[in-house]
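Regression check, nickel (II) ion case 337:
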Amino acid sequence: MEKLLLTKSDLKFVPESYIFPSESRPGNAKVPLFETIPVIDLKEEPTKLIPQIINACKDFGIFQLINHGIGEKLLQDVLEVTKEFFELPAEDKASLFSDDPRQIFRLYTSIDYMNEQVHYWRIALRHPCPVEEHIQFWPQKPAKYRELVGSYSVELRKLSLCILDLIGEGLGLEPGYFREKTELAAAHLMNMNHYPPCPDPSLTLGLPKHGDANMITFLLQEMDGLQVLRDEQWFAVKPLPNAFVVNIGYILEIVSNGKLKSAEHRVVTNQNVARTTVGSFIYPSFGCQVEPAKVLIDDNSPPLYREFVFKDFLATFLIDTNSKNKSPLERYMHEQT
Ligand code: OGA
Ligand code: NI
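Current build output:
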């Protein structure tokens, strides 16, 4: 099967269907390091921490988070067991493959393999959390996967709500806004990414330019590959040991009425070693009504976006991702008069 192509590591050339058009492929240009990406230390005093987070989310939409309280050993174990999952023999993984982008649990390569023009140079495993509620969707192999990734997802969930509380406070929202008041952060999805070595990284992308269709994303990574778009220029994010890369998604940008920015990013491949990352995505519930928070709206700040149901946003997201014209945010903007 063609979609299993990437599980073969002995490819000597890039197959035609994985070559991006010249305007979107990375090419051989050297991408500068993103030296100024904010580093947020969660041990900092809240009076300093909150403005630091808000400024990072306003200016960059992305930051690295250190001293976040999740143990180093657990982070390493989760990366390790994820690598082991992708190294399992193809027959252990074949039954998990799905081409259906609406499938919440699946092993897949690109987003919409059947309909897209170019395939991404990656394999991903996606499943919902927490493990107790969705155990049937979690892989049974490797044996330690459920236990390790399960513990990690519980810690990550707590951390994400803590960061959202700080963001809510910084924006002036009522306490607990992202918890019981709304269903904006009700769902938690994990996406494990594996980017195999690529014979020619100048032609391919692990993930093309995109913003995340969620509230906030926590990425665990240990190798170069992530790049962020800033002022129409790509910058490489240097992984910090045991840190998370945290980025704002489209939904939080909308809820903040454009005060916070989602960061557009992409993933480049490398020639020699596979790269594995663990993404944790905090989402609204499917039925959640999304709109700019009322307290952020007044005569001087009219709502930039109209109200919608999250599942409708998700449904159009795939179309938007494949279209060259409109960004998913533009689709939900109020008409300019
Ligand atoms: C994503 C993503 C980045 C990475 O999964 O949405 O942007 O480096 N991942 O894997
Ligand atoms: Ni992303």
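Comparison notes: The pocket of nickel (II) ion (ligand 2) is lined by residues 210, 212, 265 (CB under 6 Å). DSSP finds eight helices and 14 strands in the chain. No diff flagged against the previous build.
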